[in-house]
Specification:
There is one protein chain. The protein is α+β, with helices and mostly antiparallel strands. It is about 35% helix and about 20% strand. The strands form four sheets. It has a six-stranded mixed β-sheet. The protein has a four-stranded mixed β-sheet with strand order 3-2-6-7. It has a two-stranded antiparallel sheet with strand order 1-4. A hairpin with a 6-residue loop joins strand 2 and strand 3. The longest helix is centred in the C-terminal third of the chain and has 25 residues. It is globular, with a radius of gyration of 27 Å. Bound molecules: acetyl coenzyme *A. Acetyl coenzyme *A (ACO) binds next to strand 13, helix 9 and helix 10.
Length: about 500
Amino acid sequence: MALEDDWSCDANDALHITVVQPGETKPKTLSTFHPQFTYPIFGDEEQIFGYKGLIIRLRFAAHDLRPHVHISYDDRFKAVADTAATDLLGSLKPFVPEEALINLPDYENAVQDDSNAKDFTPPGKLVYSYEANERSYEIWAGSLADPDVRRILDRAQILVSLFIEAGTPLATDDPEWTLERWTVYFVYEKVTPPTPTASSYSIVGYATTYRYWLYQRDRTITPAVKDDAFPPPEIKLSELPSRLRIAQFLILPSHHRSGHGTHLYTTIHASCIADPTIVELTVEDPNESFDALRDTADFCLLQPEFVKRKVNLNPDPNGAYSRKQRLSSVPTAELIPTDVLRDIRTSFKIEATQFAHILEMFLLSQIPPSHRLAGGANIARLLIKKAKADDPDDRRYYWWRMLTKQRLFKKHKELLQELELLDRVEKLDDTVRNVEEGYEITLNAVKGRLPEPEDDAPAAPTGPRNKRKLAVEDDEDEEENVSEAVKRPKV
Ligand SMILES: CC(=O)SCCNC(=O)CCNC(=O)[C@H](O)C(C)(C)COP(=O)(O)OP(=O)(O)OC[C@H]1O[C@@H](n2cnc3c(N)ncnc32)[C@H](O)[C@@H]1OP(=O)(O)O
């Protein structure tokens, strides 16, 4: 134990990632940061044994990401029987390209005297430019079938293991027809070159996306055996109706919370909307911070459309309030304009569950804060009065909870039906409360980004930003669980 304590160190602390560019006489550091994860490389404990004062420096050239690994330490444990220091190069080799293992002076010379750097442009095509904090940025996109895209992606991919939990690098040596399904987006800052021969591009982040075919059965056609020519004409995957899926999405830590992720996501979304063969945008296993980014971006996109199309909850569905009837089911089509909403969802190409979340957020935002949980709404009274509450905003809030519960129930029906009735009611109640708390956080985050509300319109809530708590887990494609502690922030 004592031996391990003396000679062990935290792998995340030992690994330093450094972005470099040419300096006056040798490369200089632009930014340095630590990884979020090293378990794929050094094991679940993220510990390295056998070194004192260990620094593993992983360098990237700012423009073309030319990589380099340099290892230094003060002392190394001398092997005793079968106890030996971690084989650092052996652990790193599967994750870094061979070119990263040259000696440091050669690497520094290659970066300092790179004769191609001055004319470097990111691979693919320039698709979007923007300014932030008086600095200029560009987003470039190219197919993975392009060798220049593959070269930069191969260099960048170690970052996937270091920053995306359960993320795995892409195989870039697949056959061309499958590489063509992938588009890689790069975000670069346009910088003043530090030397006359240096590049004016500096990496900020990147994302990979792929198309996958969407099976759509035309029910107006009765299947029949056809006498078509054989072999059939070549099918181009890029022309078939598809979903677009974001696979890896990464902004370097030195650029976090400056809106780059939002620009990148919005650019990918805009490309889906512009492409008639793409039916909707989906995301592969998003984490909590990506969900926060996606929710804020989608809310800002859809909110003006909801306002323009006058989407709101009808507080008196089917005249139920006036007739004081007890309804046996949630009258969805009377509460919300389902046709208008279907039209908005398909034209904005947003996946159904994500659209439901954004719609629920919007409908919640239309109820004045004092009639919502966050503003101290009297839930006990609401549960007695239900749809017969006197105030239309109380009725709206009642129906908002019912609609949200209905969606949650449908989605988690099998799991919920395993519970006793009282437990089921309690679980749904907890879940809808957690969902609402999560929505309030997003509404709070988008406050400054949307036009100011009219005087009589409800304002977005204020309050501290806290972590979202959930009772039911959600994932677009995978089996879902009812649980207390979940990775996904919403249901
Ligand atoms: C499909 C996948 O790859 S899932 C994995 C996603 N990638 C990673 O987790 C890798 C490491 N992390 C990152 O690359 C970045 O933190 C990202 C991509 C998640 C976010 O990128 P950023 O450029 O920082 O996002 P951006 O500045 O546009 O944030 C927009 C909004 O999203 C929300 N948001 C972004 N990051 C976070 C976070 N860590 N926690 C909570 N909310 C967040 C905030 O509301 C933010 O607005 P605000 O800063 O005005 O409050």
